[in-house]
Every structure is written in structure tokens, then in C-alpha cells.
């Protein structure tokens, strides 16, 4: 079983945690601190593992990345510019670019590639729908293809962004039709896709009605004016005031 799958076994499947569950920090009497992403945690990310598995062997000339930019049909921005836009080092960007270029010679990733990636990392479940939603969240301009720049900027937010940045990204994921609101149906679709991807090999065992229960509890907290939808302001305010939700933000690392 892959490391990513092992991590998912102890996750509850929610990008925002288990509503009503006592945070670990409260149980231990320790004040919660935002988890730092270590190199080990970085390597748990499915997309990073997929890319680096195809990267050039160590020992190759790192300057080759700059020279090889013209080798793809879609030429990404310079690595210096991407370093300024992300929280990756230049060396990390070079490794990511090599793997990206090897896997995607055209310089673009399509949705089928995303589905293949997640089916490999989560063979115990059906990752097709989740990969579809995740792809659309990365595909900012909605043209059906993800450029290297969009790919690493998104990864940077999810893996090294502030809690505020991660929450904005999560809102965009849940807002499936991109109308600026999250409906119960949209959140339920995302939740179900995560549960489907995790399959039956999770601990604790997930009940069939768990996704709906998650959604109902979240909407009770988030939908302040009870108009049936959650706005970005309601989402950010509720999440940032809820210690349980905040302490579970590290789950982004387990399903990306």
C-alpha cells in the first residue's frame, strides 16, 4: 500500500474535519498550532509523488530545466518568476518541472491524467469523481487543460499557503458551478466523491450516511442567514472561528 493510502486510512474523509468531534489539541490540553508542512509531508502529496517519480535522476545538471523550457509546446513562465509566485524553492520547482515535462510533453495536463493519478494512489475506491472536481479547481480558466504554472501555484497554496489561502481554495473546490455560492448539493457531491475515493478501507469505518451528516452540520454552522447557500464570507468567518475545522486543515495534504 502506498504511503498516501496509509495516510488516508486515518483520515475521516473531510477536507474540513469531523463536525462535533473534539479536536486532539483539546484532549491533550495543548493550544492548537498550525501544522507545518515538512518534507516528509510534502512527499505524501499524490500530485507531488506523481511528478517526482518521473523527474530526471539526481546528478543531472539543474540548469537544464531553464534550457529545456522550449522543448514543450506550452512554454511555462521562467522558474525565477514562479519562485516569486509560489513558496517552492528554485530547486523544488526544477524537480517538479522535470517530472511534469516527462509526464506531459505538451506542457499541459488534462482531466484523464488526473483520474489516472488518483486511481493509482487510491485503488481501494473510485477516485473518478473527486479527480474531476479537483481538476476543475486547478483549471482556473476552464479550458480543459492545466498549465505547469497553474499546477505549481495551486500546489503551493494547498501545501504551503496560509490557512486563509487554503480556505479560499477549498471554497472554490466546493463551489462547483463557480457562481460564488456553495449549496448543500455541491458540498454533498464533493463529500461523497471523497468517501468514494477512500473506499471501505478506512478507519474508523465510514457510515453510508456520513457525507450527508457532514453537510448538514456544516450548513448549520456556516449558513448564518439561513438562505440555503454559503457565501465566501460566511465560509471564511465560520471556518476561522471553529478550532476543530482549523486544526483539521492538514487533511488537505491527505487528499491532494
TrEMBL record:
SMART domains: EFh. Residues 126-161, 162-197, 210-245 form the EF-hand domain. It is found in: Cell membrane. One of its GO terms (biological process) is regulation of potassium ion transmembrane transport. Gene3D superfamilies: EF-hand. Keywords: Calcium, Cell membrane, Ion channel, Ion transport, Membrane, Metal-binding, Potassium, Potassium channel, Potassium transport, Repeat, Transport, Voltage-gated channel. The keyword Ion transport applies. One of its GO terms (molecular function) is RNA polymerase II cis-regulatory region sequence-specific DNA binding. GO terms for cellular component: nucleus; voltage-gated potassium channel complex. InterPro entries: EF-hand-dom_pair, EF_Hand_1_Ca_BS, EF_hand_dom, Recoverin. PANTHER family: CALCIUM BINDING PROTEINS, CALSENILIN. Belongs to the recoverin family. This is Potassium voltage-gated channel interacting protein 3. It comes from Capra hircus (Goat).
Amino acid at each position: 500500500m502506498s504511503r498516501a493510502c496509509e495516510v488516508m486510512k486515518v483520515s475521516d474523509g473531510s477536507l474540513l474535519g469531523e463536525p462535533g468531534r473534539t479536536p486532539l489539541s483539546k484532549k491533550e490540553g495543548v493550544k492548537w498550532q498550525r501544522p507545518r508542512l515538512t518534507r516528509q509531508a510534502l512527499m505524501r502529496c499524490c500530485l507531488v509523488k506523481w511528478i517526482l517519480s518521473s523527474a530526471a535522476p539526481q546528478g543531472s545538471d539543474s540548469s537544464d530545466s531553464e534550457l529545456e523550457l522550449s522543448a514543450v509546446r506550452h512554454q511555462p513562465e521562467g522558474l525565477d518568476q514562479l519562485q516569486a509566485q509560489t513558496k517552492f524553492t528554485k530547486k523544488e520547482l526544477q524537480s517538479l518541472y522535470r517530472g511534469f515535462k516527462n509526464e506531459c510533453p505538451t506542457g499541459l495536463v488534462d482531466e484523464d491524467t488526473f483520474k489516472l493519478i488518483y486511481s493509482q494512489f487510491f485503488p481501494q475506491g473510485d477516485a473518478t469523481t473527486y479527480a474531476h472536481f479537483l481538476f476543475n479547481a486547478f483549471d482556473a480558466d476552464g479550458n480543459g487543460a492545466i498549465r505547469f504554472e497553474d499546477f505549481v501555484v495551486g500546489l503551493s497554496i494547498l501545501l504551503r499557503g496560509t490557512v486563509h489561502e487554503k480556505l479560499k481554495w477549498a471554497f472554490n473546490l466546493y463551489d462547483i458551478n463557480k457562481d460564488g455560492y456553495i449549496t448543500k448539493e455541491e458540498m454533498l457531491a464533493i463529500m461523497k466523491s471523497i468517501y468514494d475515493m477512500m473506499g471501505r478501507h478506512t478507519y474508523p469505518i465510514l457510515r453510508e450516511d456520513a457525507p450527508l451528516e457532514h453537510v448538514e452540520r456544516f450548513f448549520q454552522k456556516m449558513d448564518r442567514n439561513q438562505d440555503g447557500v454559503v457565501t465566501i464570507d460566511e465560509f471564511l468567518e465560520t471556518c476561522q472561528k471553529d478550532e476543530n475545522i482549523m486544526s483539521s486543515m492538514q487533511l488537505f495534504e491527505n487528499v491532494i
